[in-house]
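Forum: Protein Structure Q&A
Topic: Joint prediction for protein chains with partners

I've read a bunch of threads here and the consensus seems to be that you should model interacting components together rather than docking separate models afterwards. I'd like to see that in practice. Below is the full input, 116 residues plus whatever partners are listed. Could one of the regulars post the assembled result?
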Amino acid sequence: MAEETIFSKIIRQEIPTPLLYQDDLVTAFRDISPQAKSHILIIPNKLIPTVNDITEDDELTIGRMFSVARKLAKEEGINEDGYRLIMNCNKHGGQEVYHIHMHLVGGEPLGKMLSI
Ligand code: 5GP
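Posted by a regular:
Agreed with the consensus. Here's the joint model:
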């Protein structure tokens, strides 16, 4: 059984964090350390530690994450200029929180995709 992270506490609002979106499958809130003018995290309510742990049963949830990203990008007013969706996996991917999350970043030009 995977160990819960701070994100589970945010989902349950045990750590009060303003939520931009929540339904039965996913939750979204602003990143505490924004890397661009808009930086939102979209996460499954269910604890899935890494992208490697996604199963076929999670396909509805993963699809919902994209639908919510699209909706929030529009609400942020960044959909037309564009944005980037990022999911980091494990050490080489730079994952810090082991509860999968989609970064929605935009609001300004983001430059090239990778800086290694
Ligand atoms: P990762 O590197 O795992 O892909 O990204 C984790 C992200 O979670 C980081 O961008 C970090 O700033 C964000 N983060 C970590 N702890 C918290 C928190 O307690 N609240 C919020 N809103 N974001 C967090």
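The pocket of guanosine-5'-monophosphate is lined by residues 6, 17, 29-33, 41, 88, 94-97 (CB under 6 Å).
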